[in-house]
Design goal:
Layout (H helix, E strand, L loop, with lengths): L17 E7 L4 H12 L4 E8 L5 H8 L4 E3 L8 H13 L5 E4 L8 H4 L6 E5 L11 H10 L5 E8 L10 E8 L6 H24 L2
Parallel strand pairs: 1-2, 1-4, 2-3, 4-5
Antiparallel strand pairs: 5-6, 6-7
Bound molecules: glycinamide ribonucleotide.
Length: 209
């Protein structure tokens, strides 16, 4: 009998794809860039769940539109931050993620969650390392430029090893220029466009390993 040119079975490529859980709190434009890149095949990964601490986050709708499981996961008033994080970690674990991406997640995570996923929690922040941690980073950079304190800003993607705010081993940074005629809105747009590209590029690199 002639030997078949084809293997007896073909292992679907999605079995090898990295599983991403994305945590959001708001608009979810960075989530959208990840979803788009997964659909186009540019990012060989699969978003297995989108979690928001905020019921009104538009990113939940984006996930639903993409046919991805989405869940509002609020902190209840009778639990501590640590208890919430442990409960969240349990839920995330049930999705068997390779990476947890904080794409506009605006809650500090404690070691009750971070220790469950060492080197697997990745944060996006709209400023360069050490500059403007926390909320309203773009507004702070814009004001600092107006005061002559900086002449550019940037973005970064980094690992989250501990409870430090927007701090940890840097995976990628990119400088974003600020121009004299920038408004806050035009700077925000440039930063978000940069984030969308750089976040996907960074995930492409790390999901290869
Ligand atoms: C992004 O600019 C992200 O860098 C920032 O929230 C925004 C979310 O936008 N994250 C932080 O400031 C974390 N400290 P999106 O919801 O449209 O993706």
């Amino acid at each position: 009998m002639q030997k078949s040119e084809y293997p007896a079975f073909i292992i679907p490529t999605f079995i090898f794809m990295k599983r991403l859980v994305i945590l959001i709190s708001g608009n979810g434009s960075n989530l959208q860039s990840i979803l788009n890149a997964c659909v186009s095949g540019d990012l060989p990964a699969s978003v297995v769940c989108v979690i928001s601490n905020n019921a009104d986050a538009y990113g939940l709708i984006r996930a639903q539109n993409a046919g991805v499981e989405s869940i509002h996961f609020p902190k209840s008033i009778d639990e501590t931050r640590q208890q919430y994080d442990a409960r969240l970690a349990n839920y995330i674990s049930s999705k068997l993620p390779d990476y947890i991406i904080l794409a506009g997640w605006m809650r500090l995570l404690s070691s009750n969650l971070l220790s469950v996923f060492p080197n697997r929690v990745i944060n996006l922040h709209p400023a360069l390392p050490g500059a403007f941690p926390g909320t309203h980073a773009i507004e702070h950079a814009y004001a600092a430029y107006q005061n002559g304190e900086i002449n550019h800003t940037g973005i970064m993607v980094h690992l989250v090893p501990d409870e430090g705010v927007d701090n940890g081993p840097v995976l990628t940074t990119e400088i974003v220029p600020i121009y004299k005629d920038d408004t806050l809105e035009s700077l925000e747009t440039r930063i978000h466009q940069t984030e969308h590209r750089v976040l996907v590029q960074t995930l492409k690199t790390i999901t290869k390993t």
